[in-house]
Recover the amino acids of this structure.
């Protein structure tokens, strides 16, 4: 069992930055594949970024690539999402998610780690609002 708690959301002006954190409970955090998803009002939950158990593999949605960095600190049971050059289109509730590692053969840009249905554990979400 893994419990996830997100923090770091808030209101920011366009062009600004935010760093989201996701603190996980459980001794097996370091074995989990971690991801961030987001959901805007009236839209489906969508993939933002993911990171393998070791942190050696990272993946990003095209919409955030180049201005977003996902990282993890297994000693602190925490995963981070650094977002820069934010736009109003980034406004959404951001969710942290965890799943047992998918296996290295699935470490591909469009692999199962990008799909909502493949994650077992979710945080409660943190609101990010970007004003124009």
């Amino acid at each position: 069992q893994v419990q996830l708690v997100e923090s770091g959301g808030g209101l920011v002006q366009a062009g600004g930055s935010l760093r989201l954190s996701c603190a996980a409970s459980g001794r097996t955090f370091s074995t989990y594949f971690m991801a961030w998803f987001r959901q805007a009002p009236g839209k489906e939950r969508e993939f933002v970024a993911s990171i393998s158990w070791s942190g050696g593999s990272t993946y990003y949605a095209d919409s955030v690539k180049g201005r977003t960095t996902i990282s993890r600190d297994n000693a602190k049971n925490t995963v981070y999402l650094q977002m820069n050059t934010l736009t109003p289109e980034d406004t959404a509730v951001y969710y942290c998610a965890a799943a047992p590692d998918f296996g290295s053969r699935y470490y591909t840009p469009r692999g199962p780690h990008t799909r909502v249905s493949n994650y077992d554990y979710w945080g409660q979400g943190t609101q990010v609002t970007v004003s124009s």
User: Anything to note?
Assistant: The first strand starts at residue 4 and ends at 7.
